[in-house]
């Protein structure tokens, strides 16, 4: 094969399938034949933006699973035929944070608000027949369905990291609130069930989304209900939730987060909705209680992905996947843009 198909940003506002040259391996890289690639709102945003969020000409796809078909001479630990999933945070690997295993907080990005390189964003990604990636950022996916493995590096990794770092809050009798139960929110519910004894409350504006997790949570609350906060507080005896995970991140959800978090609880906001919360130090009737924290979170560590794959291998991640053929990639983009996908979209080759 000297050429292949790929889904690229060909100009600002235009994403389409094109014919491109087969990737050439560099030092420390492996060539992966892509079996499945996830599609998320970030990809949709790349297409809809009025400026180039990623360099024009980039192959999209930061959620990648497949089989190694070629290995550079200097690579150890990977062989042709290995099923793998690609860790999406391509950090420097040598700074103090990377050495501590905190690749998602890499100091080598050149700025405190910058994140490390990633496939499908700063390098060609997995919406293609083949992709070349650094071998050190691959994780064995042996025994995991590639359709599920493909979406673990983002849809699974973000909630896993966020929950794993707050496990000390989630003791017996505790409560976790998941705001937004789409692709990431469904993973959050499954991970909470697998790792914690916490009561789980799901919050969403969509009855369909709430129905999708109804059998997996202790309480489902429609965010459009004017008494939504009261319902959640009632379920916690008025004390609030030890952990609130917000996968939306708009003004309204941040207000709900603050209204239901417990004293010394945690609000974590992976959602990129652009919402604003006005922090006040004076006593408020519905402000942050004493000790509660509010923070953004970004991706996860390599260790997190290894552990997440183990959960998937053990059959402990019950999530809804919406499958599309590679040739229907643009349909997946359109469905996501309209909000018609209930679960996580994945392209299958």
Folded structure, characterized:
By secondary structure, the protein is an alpha/beta fold. Helices cover 26% and strands 26% of the residues. 46% of the residues are buried. The protein has nine helices and 15 strands. The strands form three sheets. Strands 3, 4, 5, 6, 7, 14 and 15 form a seven-stranded mixed sheet that branches. Strands 10-9-8-11-12-13 form a six-stranded parallel sheet, sandwiched between helices.
Which descriptors would you attach to this protein?
7-stranded mixed sheet, 349 residues, globular, single chain
Question: What's a quick, concise take on this entry?
Answer:
The protein has 349 residues and is an alpha/beta fold.
The description of the largest β-sheet is: 7 strands, mixed
Order of helices and strands: EEEHEEHEEHEHEHEHEHEEHEHE
- What is the helix fraction of residues, given as a range? 25-40%
Question: Which stretches are low in confidence, meaning pLDDT under 50 for 5 or more residues running?
Answer: none
Give the C-alpha Rg: 20 Å
Judging from the principal axes of the Cα atoms, what is the shape?
globular
Number of strands: 15
- Total helical elements: 9
Give the percentage of residues in beta strands: 25-35%
Terminal-residue CA separation: 16 Å
Look at the structure and give the mean pLDDT: 95
Q: Look at the helices and sheets and give the structural class.
A: alpha/beta
């Amino acid at each position: 094969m000297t050429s292949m198909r790929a889904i690229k940003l060909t100009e600002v506002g235009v994403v389409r399938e094109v014919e491109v040259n087969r990737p050439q391996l560099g030092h420390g890289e492996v060539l992966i034949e892509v079996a499945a690639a996830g599609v998320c709102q970030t990809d949709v945003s790349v297409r809809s933006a009025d400026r180039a969020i990623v360099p024009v000409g980039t192959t999209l796809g930061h959620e990648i699973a497949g089989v190694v078909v070629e290995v550079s001479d200097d690579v150890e630990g990977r062989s042709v035929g290995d099923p793998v999933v690609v860790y999406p945070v391509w950090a420097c690997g040598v700074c103090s944070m990377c050495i501590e295993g905190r690749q998602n907080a890499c100091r080598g990005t050149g700025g405190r608000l910058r994140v490390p390189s990633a496939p499908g964003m700063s390098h060609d990604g997995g919406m293609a027949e083949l992709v070349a990636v650094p071998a050190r950022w691959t994780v064995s996916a042996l025994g995991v369905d590639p359709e599920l493995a493909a979406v673990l590096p983002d849809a699974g990794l973000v909630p896993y990291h966020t929950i794993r770092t707050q496990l000390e809050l989630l003791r017996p009798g505790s409560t976790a609130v998941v705001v937004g139960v789409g692709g990431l929110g469904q993973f959050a519910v499954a991970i909470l069930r697998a790792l914690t004894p916490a009561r789980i409350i799901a919050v969403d504006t969509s009855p369909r989304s709430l129905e999708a997790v109804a059998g997996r949570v202790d309480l489902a609350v429609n965010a459009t209900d004017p008494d939504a906060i009261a319902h959640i507080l009632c379920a916690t005896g008025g004390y609030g939730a030890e952990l609130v995970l917000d996968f939306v991140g708009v003004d309204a959800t941040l207000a709900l987060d603050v209204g239901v978090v417990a004293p010394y609880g945690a609000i974590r906001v992976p959602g990129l909705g652009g919402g604003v919360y006005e922090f006040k130090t004076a006593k408020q009737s519905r402000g942050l209680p004493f000790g509660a924290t509010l923070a953004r979170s970004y991706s996860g560590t390599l260790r997190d992905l290894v552990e997440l794959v183990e959960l998937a291998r053990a059959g402990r991640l019950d999530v809804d996947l919406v499958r599309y053929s590679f040739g229907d990639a643009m349909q997946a983009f359109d469905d996501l843009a309209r909000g018609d996908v209930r679960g996580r979209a994945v392209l299958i080759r």
